[in-house]
Amino acid sequence: MKTMERRSTCPINFSVEIFGDKWMLLILRDLMFNGKNSFLEFRASAEKISSAVLTEKLNMLVDEGIVSKVVSPKNASKFLYLITDKGIELVPVMVEVLDWGSKYNPNGGPKPLLTQVRQNKKKAITELQEKLRSERQSYGLD
C-alpha cells in the first residue's frame, strides 16, 4: 500500500486529500448506492470519467484501504472493487451528502433510497451498511 504524503496532520486536511474532488465522491456513490463494482460499470456512469482518472482514483481508494480490488470469480481477467469496512464507515457521510444535495437540487427528485432516508435516516444507513457487508461476504471477504 502506498502512503500519501500529507500536507498537515489536520483531520479535515486528511479527509480532503482523499475525497477532495468530485470523482472520489461519485465513485463512492456508485459503489454504495448503485451497486457498481467493475471498471466498466464506473465508466458507464453519466458523468463520463476518463479511464486514466478512474484508474488513478480507484488505485488511491485501494491504497487508502477504502476499497479492495479482487479478481472476479466469474471472469479471471476482470477485477472487482469492493468497499471495505473502512469505506462502509463513510455511508453516513455519503447519505448526508445525498440528502443535502437532493434538498437543494431543483432536479433532484425522490429516489427509493432518498425516500428511505427521509422516513428513517438511521435505519436506512444501518440497512445500507449491512447490505454492503453482506456483498463483501458473498465474495469470501471478511
Automatic annotation (TrEMBL):
<keyword id="KW-0804">Transcription</keyword>
<dbReference type="InterPro" id="IPR002577">
    <property type="entry name" value="HTH_HxlR"/>
</dbReference>
<keyword id="KW-0805">Transcription regulation</keyword>
<feature type="domain" description="HTH hxlR-type">
    <location>
        <begin position="10"/>
        <end position="109"/>
    </location>
</feature>
<protein>
    <submittedName>
        <fullName>Transcriptional regulator, HxlR family</fullName>
    </submittedName>
</protein>
<dbReference type="GO" id="GO:0003677">
    <property type="term" value="F:DNA binding"/>
</dbReference>
<dbReference type="InterPro" id="IPR036388">
    <property type="entry name" value="WH-like_DNA-bd_sf"/>
</dbReference>
<dbReference type="Pfam" id="PF01638">
    <property type="entry name" value="HxlR"/>
</dbReference>
<dbReference type="InterPro" id="IPR036390">
    <property type="entry name" value="WH_DNA-bd_sf"/>
</dbReference>
<keyword id="KW-0238">DNA-binding</keyword>
